Amino acid sequence: KTTYSKHWMKKHPNLLKEVIPQAPEEIFVSDITYVQSQEGVHYLSLVTDAYSRKIMGYELSDEMKATDVVKALNMAIESRQYQRSTIHHSDRGLQYCSKVYQEKLNKNDIKPSMTDGYDCYQNALAERINGILKQEFL
Fold first, then answer.
1. Which of 63, 58, 66 is nearest to 41 (CA)?
2. pLDDT digits over 1-32, tens only?
3. How far is the C-alpha of 92 from the C-alpha of 89, rounded, in Å?
4. How many DSSP H helices and E strands does the chain contain?
5. Three-class SS of residue 53?
6. pLDDT tens digits, residue range 75-123?
């Protein structure tokens, strides 16, 4: 299990209820998954464009620190080709609620959005990307 959401940090409302992306880089979805290798367990953080399904940023690390997850977000921000209003959607994990992550979103005028609770279907695209990578690619 990679999500711990029973923490004291602020959780943001779900802005994606019944929203369909209409353009690239309008909505980013993020998630963390674990990946097994001969060296042990690693954590893969992904930021995916909901419209194009392009992985905009990623970070593979041995821990699930917020600073590692920010590295994936930094890559996504640096990869942007459009200057438009963007929503960042994730689960309510402490990495996404952390001060360092929220400050990075705020500094780049990206609105945070989070699942309402433990419903993985509210972050289905990010979960699907994880599944494809783990089951079909790796």
1. 63
2. 545 555 556 778 889 888 889 999 999 999 99
3. 9
4. 4, 5
5. coil
6. 999 999 998 999 999 998 889 999 999 999 999 999 999 988 666 555 6
Q: What are φ and ψ of residue 57, in 5° steps?
A: -155, 150
Q: Can you give the pTM of this predicted structure? A: 0.84
Spell out the SS3 assignment of 53-114. CCEEEEEEECCCCHHHHHHHHHHHHHHCCCCCCEEEEECCCHHHHCHHHHHHHHHCCEEEEE
| 99 C-beta neighbours (distance < 10 Å), count | 10
Helix 66-79 with 99-107: angle, nearest 10 deg = 10
Tokens of 64: 């699930």
